[in-house]
Amino acid sequence: MMRIVELKVEDTVPDGQAVLGALGVPPDRDPSDAVVSVLEEALAEFGRLAGPMGITKHVSTDEFARVYDGQGDNESPSPLEEIFPRAERLTLFAVTLGPALSSRVPVLFDEGRLALGTTLDAAASEGAELAADRLERVVMTDLLSESLIETSWRTLRYSPGYCGWNMTGQRALFAALRPEEIGIELLDSCLMEPVKSISGVMVTGAPEIHEFDNTYAFCSQCTTKACRARIRSLREPAE
Amino acid sequence: MDILAQIATELESGGDEKVRELTRAALDSSIAPSTILNDGLIAGMDVVGNRFRDHEIFLPDVLLAARAMNAGLEVLEPLLGESDMTSRGKVVIGTVKGDLHDIGKNLVGIMLSGAGFDVIDLGKDVAPARFVEAARDSGAGVIGMSALLTTTMPAMKEVVTLLEQEGLRESVRTIIGGAPVTEEYARDIGADEYGFDAANAVERVRSLLRS
Asked: Chains A, B: CB contacts under 8 A, how many?
């Protein structure tokens, strides 16, 4: 069953240090007063404009297999191809910070307010991830309260465009989930609008199902290697 | 410190109002607009670009400096003749067809302008033919393309192919960048250069237009 979740803005406001980090400022460097001032203004704009919403749908393994297969463009083998059949729960999701925030950034650029526009963009990217984290907690809390999942199980999110799941997989995901219900549209290029949106699948199961070595053929092209930190997080106590 | 050095220093600190005020003062002192531009504004922006390249300052500092540069340019532009604007070359930039991400491309444009290049920014969702047309019509020596989606990257190869078909391959060089783009991909599609960040892109454009 599909569920729409209205999230609280305060749960998605990013930490200033995280925003500066996203802009390439190392944590051990003190930003200038001017940069701090821009950061504060960007976070205020974020609070004023963000309208976080999420949509979720629990699916069976077979249903997700059809979504994942999509247009047949995925890499094979891939981590998710090997993970999802071992999952206990699969939940399609999409989350957005809303159109007002996404459309504010180009306006700031047009006004010549480059630092504020870029900082707000970075804050919105961080905020979108926090919105997805929050949505995940809402979903998992509900499943726990209904005893549908074990406390020892862990959830990680996977999105089209990463780890061998081709970007074109967005089309099958959108067809199954209908994020248009919360105002997210999918363009022909598979870009989502509003641009500060995230979609994918929440995979819940025993922690070890998420573990894999980043030795797939496409791993050499990955610049972030974010999977390593995600897998390490499985060994930390669940929140 | 002479006034031009003061302009450069204030620009490096992102002091847009101070740069505007000092630029006016420099004009009042009968310093030629082109001298203020080259020895004040561009000189300051060169230092900013080098410090960014060397990881001494970071993106927000660069953007504040760019705003300060624009503040000075607003004062000078009505007074600058065409011959005063000594350009280091013309560069067409844009985000490729189907892609709407433009923050990175905007930053490259800012840094290229700050480095003294004429930038023709076509915006986002730019068709391959439009890149080639803009380069041909403007006499640009470089086309810079940005993509943040793997589904839109193939448009970069279309531009390279079109340049070949139109006999422009030798006179118009290409540089590509964006999160999913790699140096290997640039080689595969026949692009001349790959820029891994904005500062690097400026360095590569410099070398493309020198060669």
From this structure: 81
